[in-house]
Amino acid sequence: MFCIEIRGVVQGVGFRPFIYNLAISMGLNGEVSNNGYGVLILLDATQEKVDEFIRNMRENRPPLSEIDSIKITRTKKSKPFEGFSIQMSKSTKLLSSKIPSDIAMCSECESELFDKTNRRFEYPFITCTNCGPRFSIIKNLPYDRKNTSMDEFVMCQECLNEYKNPKDRRYHAETIGCHKCGAKLSLFDNSGKKIESKNIIDEAVEAIRSGKIVAIKGIGCYHLVCDASNDSAVKLLRERKQRPLKPFGVMVKDAETAKSIAIMSAKEQELLSSNRRPIVLLQKRDSDFISLHVAPNMSQIGLFLAYTPLHYLVLQRLNRPIVATSANISDEPLCKNYDEIMRFSSVWDFCLEHNREIVNSCDDSVLFVEN
After folding, report:
1. CA nearest 233: which of 297, 294, 314, 320?
2. Taking the model in full, what pTM does it have?
3. Rounded distance, CA 322 to CA 294, Å?
4. Nearest to 251 by CA among 231, 275, 223, 286
């Protein structure tokens, strides 16, 4: 019997389901679980099979994972394993600092989001083991649903079936949810009055289109959003936020839209499209597509691609770029809940809110390519 301890970014990235399927494919018996430092694997196998298992694991590990170290020791077990299983997490005093980052929506979830035949069609919180919130919802380690802000959402039977199915992309996806059982949207005006509507996203988009400023709760913070092509809206946001000259970041729906606004190299496009979705500083094109008030008197503009399902749905409907700047006063913490954003209500007209708690706030990264 072998005990394998793996440390690194191995929680919240589909590592346990990967290990399960690898062990099954190799005909190995044992178990895998999370603990405070990473992943623990018990294998009932020969040294030769363990070596092959480790080699396959390194070569085919989930793309979002990072392995820092592997410790292999022999151990004793009174009773042999029957098959291979994912076990409940083990509690340990030692906690890892390797908490996974929030990840932009993957291409498979994007396809489902816009598929009218899919049960998650236009679900603004669609996610799987390959994408979605991680760092921003974690309360404690190990990374299990009960230790995240998803704990309050009880899975419906359909989601539970996917969660338990080793062949499903959402096998042990702790952020799993759907229209029935997951997070929900709501819309408020700046007096705190709830706006009742059959389609809340359409209401928010219409407000943006008409020149209003909308606060949108994302993964790690709220954004103040307005139409980036509307001079009056951008000027209004500057006045209300008391930000006369500092450039705003602009969110676009895809790389093609970004190319119409800015000149970019292959490396810059690679960064722009990466699963971390940073703001990338790019050389402006001569274009009337973006208001001159977005980045006044500058030759560069900061662009980033939509990274949450909610952002995708807003930009698809609006069909134009948006200013998306963090909802906070300079040098003040980011707003991460309703009470905090309401204290900022003089700046926005409407707030597109949801009921999944932001545990750890985080702002958008800004990158540039030198030379």
Report:
1. 294
2. 0.90
3. 10
4. 223
* Residue ranges, the chain, pLDDT below 70: 78, 91-97, 330
Amino acid at residue number 362? C
Which residue's entry shows tokens 């069909």?
A: 319
Question: What is the dotted CATH code of the domain comprising 101-183?
Answer: 3.90.870.30
Rg (CA), the chain: 23
Question: 87-99 as b/e, with b when 16 or more CB fall inside 10 Å?
Answer: eebeeeeeebebe
pLDDT computed for residue 330 by the predictor:
66
Residue recorded with tokens 């952002």: 311
Task: Work out whether the CA dihedral 246, 252, 254, 258 comes out positive or negative.
Answer: negative
H/E element holding 48?
A: helix 47-60
- Please tell me whether the peptide bond between 142 and the residue prior to it is cis, using omega within 30 degrees of 0: yes
Q: b/e for 349-361, b at 16 or more Cβ within 10 A? A: bbbbbbebbbbbb
Distance CA 302, CA 323 (A): 10
Identify the pLDDT of residue 336: 92
Decide whether 2-79 matches 185-367 in CATH topology.
no
Cα distance between residue 119 and residue 163, in whole Å: 15
For strand 249-252 and strand 300-305, is the pairing parallel, antiparallel, or unpaired?
parallel
CA dihedral angle for residue 326, residue 330, residue 332, residue 335, rounded to 10 degrees: -20
Best CA proximity match to 197, nearest among 186, 189, 207: 186
Q: If residue 50 lies in a helix (H) or strand (E), which one and from where to where?
A: helix 47-60
User: Residue 254's pLDDT is what?
Assistant: 96
Domain 185-367 is classified in which CATH homologous superfamily?
A: DHBP synthase (3.90.870.10)
Report the CATH number of the 2-79 domain: 3.30.70.100
Nearest Cα neighbor of 147 from 219, 99, 185 is: 99
Q: CA–CA distance from 124 to each of 19, 65, 252, 269 (Å)? A: 30, 25, 17, 26
321: which residues sit within 8 A by CB, 6+ positions away?
A: 228, 229, 250, 251, 252, 257, 261, 289, 290, 315
